[in-house]
């Protein structure tokens, strides 16, 4: 007799508190690189460009700060730049920077960077990319700016990469043979090369405006994000006016929800590229080189920059001589943030439609081992209505359990 009146009360409590069991956020922040501490946790290359054969010397940490090529400006943003203050004699190289995170981030990671300015100009070849510890054998992801052309670029991911006076970003994967790119319906960019073991990697060209060059800066910059997941590698770009609300509103202590991000610019699903086979934990890299095996190739250089000097040769007409032609050859970075699910994250939303607005975050956590894992399914996040359906399923299951318990008590 006493149990019957308690049933509605118990059910209502369950419904009220059930959402706490299913957080909507998918990723926990594990490292924030920003402000005065931005350069903590990065290694400076300290040698000439023996990778893409560019005409630069990538400085060590002391020379980088001493020569003013690395600093935090009054806005609190990190600046990495090419030397634009000195004359360079023929057969000499111009000073520049390449920095790499000391931490490596495993499958199950998410990386977001907010940048105000990206290097551009004739001969300029900037990139924000990732690489495995045993590069080139452990994969590479290129995020921003177009990408390199040799086998040593294998096992990396290019998030941002471009050259010279291009007006769009390219994204690419570089792997050993066996990884292919198939274009899914939820990719907004245009697929180019499909074989990730080719010198160019498997390449996707950005179609959203202002992803590179002067347009990027004029729009106030933008945000690049890359999801490194067992289900695939997915890369987004948003110009400043279109940054998702979740990125704008996230704090230094909050996780991040990617459910409203919409379809990615580049989508590399694992159906034709086994992510855990071709990619090990990845270090993040920023670099700026000049000319080299891509920006300096006549077929790439001459159409846009052939009239920038008397010889028509990238090195002669740009690197040699005064540095003021490199006034736009710098990164200005608000932050880089690394997140992890602690498990398998969902694939992005499938509909190839325009996306909404932006999101934001910050924090520092020291890492003794790679963050993330691809082996344990994570209950943290479910995309869109799928998450709601799971919650409703959970309500039904738990209600049944509760009713069963109450019924058995009555009986």
From TrEMBL:
Annotated signal sequence range: 1-26
Matches recorded under SUPFAM superfamilies: Concanavalin A-like lectins/glucanases (SSF49899)
Gene3D superfamilies xref list: 2.60.120.200
Keyword Signal: yes
Entry's Gene Ontology BP terms: glucan catabolic process
Keywords for this protein: Signal
Any matching Pfam family: GH16_XgeA
Protein's UniProt name: GH16 domain-containing protein
Organism: Tricholomella constricta
């Amino acid at each position: 007799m006493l149990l019957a009146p308690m049933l509605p009360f118990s059910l209502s409590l369950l419904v009220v508190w059930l959402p706490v069991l299913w957080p909507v956020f998918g990723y926990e922040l594990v490292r924030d690189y920003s402000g005065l501490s931005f350069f903590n946790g990065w290694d400076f290359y300290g040698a000439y460009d023996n990778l893409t054969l560019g005409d630069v010397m990538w400085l060590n940490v002391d020379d980088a700060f001493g020569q003013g090529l690395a600093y935090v400006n009054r806005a609190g943003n990190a600046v990495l730049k090419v030397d634009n203050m000195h004359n360079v004699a023929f057969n000499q190289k111009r000073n520049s920077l390449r920095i790499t995170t000391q931490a490596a981030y495993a499958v199950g990671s998410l990386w977001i960077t907010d940048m105000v300015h990206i290097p551009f100009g004739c001969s300029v070849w900037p990139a924000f990319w990732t690489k495995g510890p045993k590069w080139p054998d452990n994969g590479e992801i290129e995020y921003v700016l177009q990408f390199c052309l040799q086998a040593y670029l294998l096992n990396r991911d290019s998030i941002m990469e471009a050259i010279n006076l291009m007006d769009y970003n390219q994204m690419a994967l570089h792997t050993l043979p066996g990884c292919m790119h198939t274009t899914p319906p939820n990719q907004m960019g245009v697929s180019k090369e499909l074989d990730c073991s080719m010198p160019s990697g498997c390449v996707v060209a950005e179609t959203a405006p202002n992803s590179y060059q002067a347009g990027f800066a004029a729009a106030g910059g933008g945000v690049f994000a890359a999801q490194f997941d067992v289900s695939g590698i997915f890369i987004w770009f948003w110009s400043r006016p279109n940054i998702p609300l979740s990125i704008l509103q996230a704090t230094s202590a909050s996780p991040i929800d990617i459910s409203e991000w919409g379809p990615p610019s580049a989508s590399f699903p694992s159906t034709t590229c086994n992510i855990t086979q071709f990619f090990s934990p990845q270090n993040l890299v920023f670099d700026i080189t000049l000319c080299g095996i891509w920006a300096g190739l006549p077929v790439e250089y001459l159409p846009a920059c052939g009239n920038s000097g008397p010889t028509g040769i990238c090195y002669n007409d740009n690197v040699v001589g005064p540095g003021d032609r490199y006034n736009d050859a710098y990164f200005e970075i608000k932050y880089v943030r690394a997140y992890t699910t602690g498990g398998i994250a969902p694939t992005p939303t499938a509909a190839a439609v325009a996306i909404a607005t932006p999101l934001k975050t910050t924090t520092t956590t020291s890492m003794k081992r790679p963050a993330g894992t691809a082996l344990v399914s994570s209950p943290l996040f479910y995309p869109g209505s799928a998450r709601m359906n799971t919650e409703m399923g959970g309500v039904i299951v738990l209600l049944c359990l509760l009713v069963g318990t109450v019924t058995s008590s009555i009986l």
